[in-house]
UniProtKB/TrEMBL annotation:
Domain (Aminotransferase class I/classII large) ranges: 36-384
Name the record gives this protein: cysteine-S-conjugate beta-lyase
Pfam families: Aminotran_1_2 (PF00155)
GO molecular function, one term: cysteine-S-conjugate beta-lyase activity
Alphabetic keyword roster: Lyase, Pyridoxal phosphate
Source organism superkingdom: Bacteria
Lineage: Bacteria, Bacillati, Bacillota, Bacilli, Bacillales
Signal peptide coordinates: none
Annotated PANTHER family: PROTEIN MALY (PTHR43525:SF1)
Family membership noted in the UniProt record: Belongs to the class-II pyridoxal-phosphate-dependent aminotransferase family. MalY/PatB cystathionine beta-lyase subfamily.
NCBIfam families per the UniProt record, alphabetical: C_S_lyase_PatB (TIGR04350)
Amino acid sequence: MNRFNFHQKISRENTASVKWDLTKDVFGRSDVLPMWVADMDFQPPEEVKKAIEDRMAHGVYGYTYAPDSTAESIGLWLNKRHGWKIKNEWILYSTGVVPSIATAIQAFTEKGDKVLLQSPVYTPFFEMIKQNGRTVVNSQLKLENGRYEIDFADFENKLKEGVKLFLLCNPHNPGGRMWTEEELRKIGELCVTYDCLILSDEIHSDLIYKGHKHYPIASLDPRFAELTVTCIAPTKTWNLAGIQASAAIISNEKLRKAFQAEQHKQGFFTLSAFGIIGMEAAYRHGGEWLDGLMDYLEENKKTAAEFIGQHLPGIRLMEPDGTYLLWLDCRGLGLTDDDLRQSLLEKGKLALEPGPKYGSGGEGFVRMNIACPHEVLAEGLERLKRAFG
Ligand SMILES: Cc1ncc(COP(=O)(O)O)c(C=O)c1O
């Protein structure tokens, strides 16, 4: 029995929620169950809510800064959960990981430079490269036995072309792969050899299923740390995306100064009062809640796998190592992406993320977010069956 109330259904309608209130704009209809955007339908831990409420009750919301205690809370968390010892001064704050990706691109590359990614991958990776006038280089992941694997020969060939920066997604969205220590060491060695910086997006790294472990690439070897910017955030882990808070951890002083100078050019100096308070409370007090959440998500994952296995033979679920995102291989249904979308919306009344959004390799897939009460998941699965059963 989970001691946290993840069963509770909380209406998010009319809260300016992207997931719940923008379905009409994005999918053209509002009668759909939204299981697309990567946030959760749960409240955060009590301690986080209380810390924000107490700050709110104070009533004066003047300029604030992130005190040392916030950096300390991040350091304690990373050491305890991932065995990574960092120093307070390595931390720079940012309103989000996507803004940090943009900052890194601007700070470390020039217009036209090559930036590497591994598709299918989180859409803003492509957008940040393109919108900043850089060139996307893609080393597409290989699908082997229903799991994504890195094609290291291709990866190395791409680095040889003179790539300046590699955007690593660990754990990987949408596939849910947590890259193993061996894989990360190979990546690190190749980036050292070809003098390529790494931006390691580790936003999903606390959402780990049993039997898996997250390795921050910067923690594996001082040479990897020298060329890495690691982005973490409390926002996926504790469902705080609306307070916009994240951290970029950079041990290499030269890189850190360049990243910070770019932030200052953009006029960014610090987080909001609520971002700082929520972030620190989550890292200090969120451990037990997170363990409860992962038990709950593990049940959701199992339910979805069983249901799909039983009722939807044309769909194959990619077993995620981490994240609350299910990457569903629908190619067995023999439908085009347009037909998939249409069936989901019209027959199923279900809003999922279309695979092609994640670049090449995403065709024929959809992404389903299972961070919701069991009851909502059951409804979502029924709708999936109505769409394709
Ligand atoms: C891999 C990845 N990076 C970054 C983000 C968003 O980060 P932020 O809201 O901090 O900009 C997401 C959200 O889905 C994500 O999946």
